[in-house]
Amino acid sequence: MRYVSTRGQAPSVGFIDAILSGLAPDGGLYVPETWPTLTKDEIAAFAGQPYHAVATEILSRFVGNEIARDTLADMCAEAYATFSHSAVVPLKQIAPQGFIAELFHGPSLAFKDVAMQLLARLSDHVLGEQKRTQTILCATSGDTGGAAVEAFRGRANTRIVVMFPDGRISEVQRRFMTTADEGNVACVAVAGDFDDCQAILKTALQDASLKQAVGLAAVNSINFARIVAQCVYYFTTAVALGAPHRSISFAVPSGNFGDGFAGYVAKRMGLPIDKIVVATNSNDILARAFEEGRYVRGVTTATQSPAMDIQSASNFERLYFECARRDGLETARAFAAFAETGIIDIPPQAYAAMRETFVGVSVSEGETARTIVSTLRETGELIDPHTAVGVAGMRRAPGLTGPVVVLSTAHPAKFPDTVAAATGETPTMPRTAAHLAGKTERYDRLPADADAIKAYVRAFAEGHAPA
What we know:
The chain is α/β, with parallel strands linked by helices. The protein contains 19 helices and 15 strands. It has a domain at 91-109 and 226-423: Rossmann fold (3-Layer(aba) Sandwich), CATH 3.40.50. The protein has helices spanning 15-21, 40-44, 51-63, 69-80, 112-130, 143-152, 171-178, 194-205, 208-214, 224-240, 258-268, 285-292, 316-323, 328-341, 348-355, 365-379, 385-396, 416-423, 450-463, and strands at 3-5, 30-32, 91-95, 98-102, 134-139, 158-165, 185-191, 216-217, 248-253, 273-280, 294-296, 343-345, 358-362, 404-408, 444-447. Helix 11 (258-268) links the parallel strand 9 and strand 10 (273-280). Helix 13 packs across helix 15. The model has no long low-confidence stretch (mean pLDDT 94).
């Protein structure tokens, strides 16, 4: 299996090089040269299988012979043994045809654990084989950072620096990062929003000198291994509800669009997905793109679902590339223009291809709060504000038939103030995370300046060898 850049100007690479570098040298994102596919019988055979077994089967199609099958199976088993629920991603019914897939049973109580626990093991294995180390720079809107720290803390071959927007994430989200006391972890509160953090990350990844000096890599959803790992739960949930013998739709709370694109990957592999509802908060660049055919950056607004406070969704470039018939030059042109103007007018053919699968719904703050309340009243389930955006999207999206699965991306205890304000009930913190409140935090504050962050990363990497 070879991987190519969405911008068409970088040489193809293997799976290992794709996941260790993250961003391609031409600034594009890696995607497989061809999409692997599964037959209906192969998909049906996932029924009743342990989650780690399905993950091994899906990932093996992308890894090829670069990692031995037995080694990959061991890594999947170890990664998902860290989850507190034996099903890893259990389903709960909330309506006659509506279901929630609980993606928050991992160590940091958010869906990012599903991919990050596996990526940490993949990376550490490969680095150990190659006898080298790396420095990860991570930009987070709240959940990626906590999942990355939980996955990489204390790892033998990796240092990690996490950037988060100062004052724009919940206290629980912050503490999952800042209470880590291992020497290979550093956290930075950036005076800006997530889009500032993400732009700094991309600038740093294109600095050849820095990459060479510290072995710089990324674990954001620009890393294709994250996408592959996330597409696994589309298969397990769909099969549990009758796939491949009937089609399933999904409602996905969306910020950086990694989760939504993972659904697209599952569909390309043969899973019968009817529609994917991309549900956003008021930072609705994606919802508007799918409903109007224009991808237009706005001003990032702070909301009660902060992990989705994003106005530049990295993985949209992957979808654009696919729907533009894999035209790398067109994709490079479009995203160079977007960097300058903040606008892409999606070509009609590409827009029609997107609309075959994707529906956009923008959910207001008031509707988010009301959905938290109504879900509690109707089902007895407390949901976090991001999941509420997904549930509202499911309810409002037109033309959905058959089962619809909402991806529940975080435990409500990660957003206790928001949930309590809406319902009067404070969610109980799981035992695995209750200790965070009493731990000392450790982080630095820096301006939203790429040079300042790059200097910080270099100094940290030089002064702190991996644990």
